[in-house]
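Lab notebook page, bench 4
Experiment: in silico fold of construct C2
Operator: M.H.
Input chain length: 103 residues
Purpose: comparison with the prior construct
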Amino acid sequence: MLKKSIKKKKGENPLASHPSAIKRNKQNEKRSFRNLHIKSTVKSSVKKVREAIEGKDMEGAQRALAKTIPLIQKARTKGVFHRNTRSRKISRLTREVNALKGQ
């Protein structure tokens, strides 16, 4: 039997009936929208760094990296990324940018 996918509109809580459950659903919804925005911003920024690396643009890659690192760190402080994830992402990007110097 196939389940129908229910598209949820913002602010709609079909299952919650208790006031605390309604509040919890609202908070979760806010957080998920915020997390989605932060993740997509970080991904776009990382993409710019990688495009500059592929284009062998050392200056552009360094500028993009300088803008990307604070975004990744902010994502960590907001609880979107685990601290190891933050460190791994920053380390890998920095290593890729620094590898351009050797070429």
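Observations: The mean pLDDT is 89. Residues 4 and 14 are 15 Å apart (CA to CA).
Next step: discuss at group meeting.
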